[in-house]
Amino acid sequence: MTFISMRWPRAAILGALVSVACSSSSASNKGDAGPGTGGTGVTGTGGTTSPGCPGFTVAPTDPFNCGACGNICGVVTLAASGNSSIAIAIDATSVYWTDDSGSSTGTVMKVPLGGGSPTTLASGQAIPNGIAVDATSVYWTNQGDTLASNGTVMKVPLAGGTPTMLAGGQSVPRYIAVDATSVYWTTYNGGTVMKEPLEGGAPTTIASGQASPLGIAVDATSVYWMNYVGGAVMKVPLAGGTPTTLVASGASGIAIDSTSIYWTDWNLGVMKEPLGGGTPTAIASGQATPYAITVDATSAYWTSFGGDTIEKVPLTGGIWTTIATGQYGAASIAVDATNVYWQATGGAVRRLGICQGGVCK
Description:
- The protein has one domain: Neuraminidase, CATH 2.120.10.30.
- About 0% of the residues lie in helices and about 45% in strands.
- It has a five-stranded mixed beta sheet with strand order 1-20-21-22-23, with no helix packed on it. It has a five-stranded antiparallel beta sheet with strand order 2-27-26-25-24, with no helix packed on it.
- The chain has no helices and 32 strands.
- It is mainly β.
């Protein structure tokens, strides 16, 4: 899964702010230590009551309740490039990210979920931004020059190889999503939402006149995105048409699952609403500048710029839990069946520790 923000509390920080839940996986640090650490896991909650432990077993593998209710495994740094990781995506084996090292020296990277040596999948990229993966390829946008329409949409095989340009001449393309047939992306300066077949072809505009669109997500019927100016969350059919406003203003990051859209709002907290529209519900209020968000089958996870933390709450709402602290500038987040992954300022790509047999490792 994967997610830039409607508003930047730290102007230099960029991140992919959209996530899509699926059944099998899920777009400098304060006190930064060497590889293998970074910040801390936290046993505790966002309130005064201990968190519940649904499904807790004698020999758990749950990194949030490892060997005991509320025992959260510490933070592991999977990669620390020293540059600026922008956005992350995951599949069943690896974490992938874009690294903006300069105007023409950016890279697309991957590392095994369990850690190891990072692999460069593509180099010499012109300010890479959003990233997405499917069963065969990694897709990303290159922003290019903000004053010219020279951005590109790219792909490369999961194992690496020669990158392919799917679309050129884009006006600051930012975030990206894929489904079984097409790749979708937003153009920040162009104000459009675009679509193209995975194998390449002519790009199609499915929405225009948008207020600097950023994060994007897709399901079986619709494309969803967030506008930087004003913070509206929008929806349009896969084939295009008249966009529908789901959230009028205030969104900083969005995520979807099969029934609902979730978003972060700096004033209201973490919110949800049916995909077809309806009454918004707060599932976590009193948050310190919530930013990127992702969801799985049971919980929502988000980064907090105000607290430099990673947070978690049940999808139905309730007590929210701080699962990691000291995560300065965390601006992209993803989740799979067993763990949470995020990037932080300084190029660090991190996850919680792995719980095996009730022991954090």
